[in-house]
Each structure stands twice: as C-alpha cells, then as structure tokens.
Amino acid sequence: MTEPSGEFTLFVRDGDELVGSFAPEYASVLRELVRQSSEVLDQPVDRTDPGLARLFPDVYPDSLADSAELRRLTESELRGDKLAAAQLILDTLPADGGEVRLSDDSAGVWLRGLNDIRLLLGSRLEVDADTDLAEELDAEITRDPSSPRAAQLLAYVVAGEVQDALLTALTGWRY
Q: Computed from CA positions of residues 111, 115, 118, 120, in that sequence, does the dihedral angle turn out positive or negative?
C-alpha cells in the first residue's frame, strides 16, 4: 500500500481493496452519526423535518397524490437500503478506531451511507453549496464553544472528509 506523500488521507487503495485508518476520535464521531441517522431512518418520515424531506423528497411537487403513491411503492425499499448502508459502516468500522478494508462494492455502499448522513445533517443545519464551513464553524465556536450546532457542524465536516477520502481512493481522482 502506498500512501501519497505530503498529504493525509483516511483511505488509500491497496490492490483490490480500499484501506482506511481511523483515529479513535474519527471512528467515534462517525459511528455516532451513523447510529443517530439509523434511529431517524427507523421512524416514520416526518415531512416537516428538512433532513428527512431531503432523503425522501416529494418527487412530484405539483402532485402530492402522485408523490404519496410513489412513496408508498418505494419508501420501504429505499429506507431498507439506507439502513443497510448504515449497518455496513457500523459492521466494518472498529469502535475504537483502526483499520477498515473495503471492496469497491462495499466502498460504494459506504459512500451512499455517508452521503445520506451529510444530506440529513446538512439539510437540518441549512448548509448549502455557498456555505463556508470553516467560517461557519469558527463563528459558532466563537459565539458558544459548547453549542450543539458547533458539534453538528464539526461532525458534518468529519463525515465530508471521510467521504472525500474514500471517493478519492476509489476513483483515483485528485483535485
């Protein structure tokens, strides 16, 4: 396994596998995010929750009846896929940190699970493409270092770093 020189990555390619090394703090944050998102996914969809509305959108915004019918037909399977992705992350990520080895297929499932976490949390935090996360986090910590929003923003950043590192290792693409 060759680690790129001069940069830190959570994942690198090792032959047919993607190997991640997680510090205990990263593993703890990520496992807690997965656990919390699984709890939310286990509940009926609250259409007023911006995170759940993002994960289970109204596909036909001009026809609530058509959206409801599509949800009736697909939501159970979609929810099951999201919960399975969360479970795979929990099954493969050591609670105390350490090494994770993933096939390309498992990496794809991890990416979908991480994406769901970020969509859920980002929608609730009102993060969008124009949000400067470093600035937002700094401002929140300055305002109140113990605020739940600061912790949530930091968790969002951690999930993004893991997602980015895994995608980079999977595709070999660097920007």
A: negative
